[in-house]
Amino acid sequence: MTKNTTFLKDVNDGLSQKVKHISSKYFYDKKGDQLFQQIMEMPEYYLTNCEMEIFKEQSEAIISAFNINENQEFELIELGAGDGKKTQYLLEKLLEKHLKFKYIPVDISQNSLDVISTRLKKIFPNLHIEAMQGEYFQVLEALFQSKNPKIILFIGSNLGNLNDEVAHDFLHKLSDNLKWGEKLLLGLDLIKSKNIVLPAYNDSAGITKAFNINLLERINHEFGADFNLEKFDHFPYYEEEEGIAKSFLKSKIKQSVFIKALNKSFEFAEGELITTEVSRKYNDKILNKILENSNMEIQEKFLDSENYFADYILTKK
Ligand code: AVJ
């Protein structure tokens, strides 16, 4: 199945359920990529600044924790590379130390990979970079074909978009592919109060709203649907006890939407929700529960000065 027919099938399945949903992985078309870049610039979206501070201030310590054998070439694999601005600090230090490595950014968005490759090649002419387009689960096998030792970067709280069971399966599958002593640098947003988390997913400039609604616009463009973008609202939700920020699209009225590529209409009640994103927040306990029996353990944890965000180093046992 090509990527687009998978998307169409997922839209059909998701909108045919009693509780409607469309996966957040479909946010990232060209416009979605740009809107996410803008979200990261929003004052309310603390995640990026916090993790940026960790990379800026603690890259040296992070590299020590990697325990790199300097005589051996390794692969630095970044899952969900995005714009690579945080990783830049790490790359700079690794290159300074004349360590031998290949940087492999992996992303669902070819557009993001093109942007990051061009930028990094310009900044670091000596960087050996080899981008790979694909979804996390699907590229794992291809990634683990080479024999060189691996360091995996999975930062930006990208794991948060996966439901706990899926996050469990993903980390276990990743762990199964790692060899003894290999590392995973896992960047996770930490559980904190609603008055900090909720505005991050509801910025006052309305960028997150546009990001969420762009999903419907994408379906209009790609599948000839007639979603009236004015008739849906961005609806963010977060409760600290649960620790999961959720984004929904809310139908403002009772309405029917036709999707040409499916030759099918979908009915929406007034106030009906489509789940479009979960962004799980973590703590040590939740992470340890997910890692149970995975043969990966927390080796070290790097925090920003507000203790909002954590970059964990996990080691394969
Ligand atoms: C890219 C998954 C980390 O969940 O915080 C930002 C995406 N969604 N605002 C997140 C996002 C709405 C983001 N991640």
UniProtKB/TrEMBL annotation:
<dbReference type="GO" id="GO:0032259">
    <property type="term" value="P:methylation"/>
</dbReference>
<feature type="domain" description="Histidine-specific methyltransferase SAM-dependent">
    <location>
        <begin position="8"/>
        <end position="315"/>
    </location>
</feature>
<dbReference type="InterPro" id="IPR051128">
    <property type="entry name" value="EgtD_Methyltrsf_superfamily"/>
</dbReference>
<dbReference type="InterPro" id="IPR019257">
    <property type="entry name" value="MeTrfase_dom"/>
</dbReference>
<dbReference type="InterPro" id="IPR029063">
    <property type="entry name" value="SAM-dependent_MTases_sf"/>
</dbReference>
<keyword id="KW-0489">Methyltransferase</keyword>
<keyword id="KW-0808">Transferase</keyword>
<dbReference type="Pfam" id="PF10017">
    <property type="entry name" value="Methyltransf_33"/>
</dbReference>
<protein>
    <submittedName>
        <fullName>Dimethylhistidine N-methyltransferase</fullName>
    </submittedName>
</protein>
<dbReference type="GO" id="GO:0008168">
    <property type="term" value="F:methyltransferase activity"/>
</dbReference>
<dbReference type="InterPro" id="IPR017804">
    <property type="entry name" value="MeTrfase_EgtD-like"/>
</dbReference>
